[in-house]
């Protein structure tokens, strides 16, 4: 269902390309500043990008409406090649609707491929902060080398968003967020900073939780620095949920109330993310697995491993199990698996990058048990995808993962039980932005004797910065010294390269 006016989608804009325009002046605005949640962009294509903002002069109001009256508001937008907006390449206006919590998703078109742009909004006599964005290279061209940062898991109470700030400072061309952008749990006393209110259940609750998170200036800086590609994990709805099955019985909800909660969660997710209008949810479902092509350089296959999975064999518990125990379980669902394998068969880009949520490589603990919430709990599903990319001659499969709040770098194996078997791909696991608190300085790989294909580990918070070129991907594991103290320094705690045509990790 489209919940945006036709004027939302302005392809090419209202201004003549390259035209010099009268500057925007801030009027003597009678209302408070409405851009307190910042600006964002996402879903870059060779000729367009999504621009996002949400009006909220009082972001933390309990009704989730951010202090806006029950009326629609016109929001103007501009895209320029320079930060002064002295000439425009695209511009228009859009209705920010009360029904959408005054969020807007503008598809700004008429842009040139592999180009940098600046954008801003104006509403109610106020001008927003300026964001920087970028388009993808044209089909068949490599474009510039791409600095892409990826991250996940930003529990607000666990620490400050220094890692988001450091991502912005790296000036990436693209950011991937792999889930747990918010957490649903109630305030817990004594945290570094506290959630507002009880566990979130209603649409107003979810809207206010996003507003609390998005009020953070470090998060706003990361959004303003580059376009994002986002996929949710469980906590955008509820811990460890699987398809229509709740793993968590608190608070008690009837089936109808759970469906209403999921509907609210995905509606608020869409409202608060720079997604295309085609991703707007329908009821309690949202269509998020998608491909974003980055010219000849890379293809991003963004997966949704929550909405279509079979229920976990043991929640997110660890369990000793056999292949036969788990043979019928799918993590992606049949339709998404077919879509992924069909896309991998196209060989669109040099690097086929799977942006997804949960640990992909086999990982056994000292007792031989594996995490049933991750691909180890759905190992037939994993085998079909690995064999699928082998059968289709995929040159450079690279899996990106969030969820586990630790950094890992893994070789993917044809047969995890046989360390001598072929390395057939590579996995990079970002740690968390803040979830889990400071962590430790340890880089000792846990249970490495059971998992010789796991090559790197760090227990600090941070992100992974990749530099993607036609000949290699370089991965720098970035770690912040602390998340309980604001503005801690960042350092690189591990670096690897993956060479074109040669799956697996090499020291940088
Ligand atoms: Fe998480």
Automatic annotation (TrEMBL):
Organism of origin: Micromonospora pisi
Keywords: Signal
Domain Phospholipase D N-terminal per the UniProt entry, residue ranges: 37-135
This protein's record includes keyword Signal: yes
Signal peptide (from-to): 1-22
SUPFAM superfamilies in the record: Metallo-dependent phosphatases
Gene3D superfamilies in UniProt: PhoD-like phosphatase, Purple acid phosphatase-like, N-terminal
Organism lineage string: Bacteria, Bacillati, Actinomycetota, Actinomycetes, Micromonosporales
Name of the protein described by the UniProt record: Alkaline phosphatase D
CDD domains recorded: MPP_PhoD
Keyword Nucleotidyltransferase among UniProt keywords: no
Protein origin, superkingdom: Bacteria
Domain PhoD-like phosphatase metallophosphatase: from-to ranges: 148-477
InterPro entries to which the protein is assigned, alphabetical: Metallo-depent_PP-like, PhoD-like_MPP, PhoD-like_sf, PhoD_N, Phospholipid_Metab_Enz, TAT_signal
């Amino acid at each position: 269902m489209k919940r945006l006016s036709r004027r939302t989608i302005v392809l090419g804009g209202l201004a003549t390309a390259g035209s010099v325009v009268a500057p925007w002046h801030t009027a003597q605005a009678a209302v408070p500043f409405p851009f307190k949640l910042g600006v964002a962009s996402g879903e870059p294509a060779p000729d367009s990008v999504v621009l996002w903002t949400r009006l909220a002069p009082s972001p933390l109001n309990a009704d989730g409406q951010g202090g806006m009256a029950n009326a629609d508001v016109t929001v103007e937008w501009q895209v320029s090649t320079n930060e002064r907006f002295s000439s425009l390449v695209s511009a228009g206006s859009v209705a920010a609707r009360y029904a959408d919590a005054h969020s807007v998703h503008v598809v700004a078109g008429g842009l040139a491929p592999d180009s940098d742009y600046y954008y801003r909004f104006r509403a109610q006599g106020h001008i927003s902060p300026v964001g920087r964005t970028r388009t993808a290279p044209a089909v068949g061209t490599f474009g510039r080398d791409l600095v892409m940062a990826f991250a996940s898991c930003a529990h607000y109470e666990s620490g400050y968003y220094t890692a988001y700030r450091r991502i912005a400072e790296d000036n990436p061309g693209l950011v991937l967020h792999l889930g747990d952008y918010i957490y649903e749990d109630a305030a817990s006393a004594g945290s570094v900073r506290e959630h507002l209110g009880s566990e979130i259940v209603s649409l107003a609750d979810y809207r206010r939780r996003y507003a609390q998170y998005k009020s953070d200036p470090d998060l706003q800086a990361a959004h303003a620095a580059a376009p994002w590609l986002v996929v949710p994990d469980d906590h955008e709805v509820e811990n460890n949920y699987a398809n229509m099955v709740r793993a968590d019985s608190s608070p008690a909800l009837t089936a109808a109330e759970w469906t209403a909660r999921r509907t609210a969660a995905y509606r608020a997710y869409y409202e608060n993310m720079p997604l295309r209008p085609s991703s707007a949810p329908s009821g309690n479902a949202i269509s998020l697995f998608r491909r974003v092509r980055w010219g000849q350089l890379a293809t991003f296959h963004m997966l949704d491993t929550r909405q279509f999975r079979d229920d976990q064999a043991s929640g997110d518990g660890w369990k000793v199990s056999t292949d036969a125990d788990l043979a019928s379980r799918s993590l992606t669902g049949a339709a998404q698996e077919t879509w992924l394998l069909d896309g991998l068969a196209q060989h669109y880009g040099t690097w086929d990058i799977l942006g997804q949520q949960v640990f992909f490589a086999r990982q056994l603990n000292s007792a031989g048990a594996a995490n049933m919430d991750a691909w180890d709990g759905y190992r037939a599903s994993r085998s079909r995808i690995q064999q699928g990319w082998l059968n289709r001659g995929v040159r450079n499969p690279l899996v990106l993962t969030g969820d586990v709040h630790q950094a890992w770098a893994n070789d993917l194996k044809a047969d995890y039980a046989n360390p001598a078997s072929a390395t057939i791909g590579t996995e990079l696991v970002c740690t968390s932005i803040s979830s889990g608190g400071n962590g430790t300085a340890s880089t000792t790989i846990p249970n490495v004797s059971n998992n010789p294909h796991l090559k790197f580990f760090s227990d600090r918070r941070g992100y992974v910065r990749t530099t993607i070129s036609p000949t290699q991907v370089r991965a720098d594991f970035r770690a912040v010294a602390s998340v309980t103290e604001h503005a801690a320094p960042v350092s690189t705690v591990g670096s690897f390269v993956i060479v074109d045509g040669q799956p697996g990790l090499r020291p940088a």
